């Protein structure tokens, strides 16, 4: 889904596929956007769409913000690394557990309750393809948020975990996931 605020900032929602784990309770990494994939709003982000924006941010000494649910009053961490590669927009960062929402986000991710990423951006240039999809060719990236409802199901986030508690959390998540599937099949 794409939403637009009165200021013109758009939000694109992406889903965490696969298991999410936290390193030291706060490190996360993955893809906030995948090139060439059609999202649920019918948009496709083209390779290179973030290049100029990331260059401008770097030259200005600024960074892409890590927010909670696109709320600018609730920064929850820092993206230490944001770059494009052949796959899409890769992000790597830290949830700040000294911040209340950062602690809550870490707990929600570990429990499997939060499984989405969403990019906040302004469209600079776009075209329509033969199928009528909007192809986003240049974006001004403002932020990447952790969100409840994702837009691009194929987008992935993963993280590194080296703690026995993370293994236990993953095992519990698998058990609960199997239970959910069993309950859904029974309906």
Automatic annotation (TrEMBL):
Residue spans crossing the bilayer: none
Protein name (Swiss-Prot/TrEMBL): HK97 family phage prohead protease
Organism of this sequence: Meridianimarinicoccus marinus
A single MF term (Gene Ontology): peptidase activity
Source taxonomy: Bacteria, Pseudomonadati, Pseudomonadota, Alphaproteobacteria, Rhodobacterales
GO biological process, one term: proteolysis
Pfam families: Peptidase_S78
InterPro entries referenced in this protein's UniProt entry, alphabetically: Peptidase_S78_dom, Prohead_protease
UniProt keyword terms in alphabetical order: Hydrolase, Protease, Viral release from host cell
Keyword DNA damage part of the UniProt annotation: no
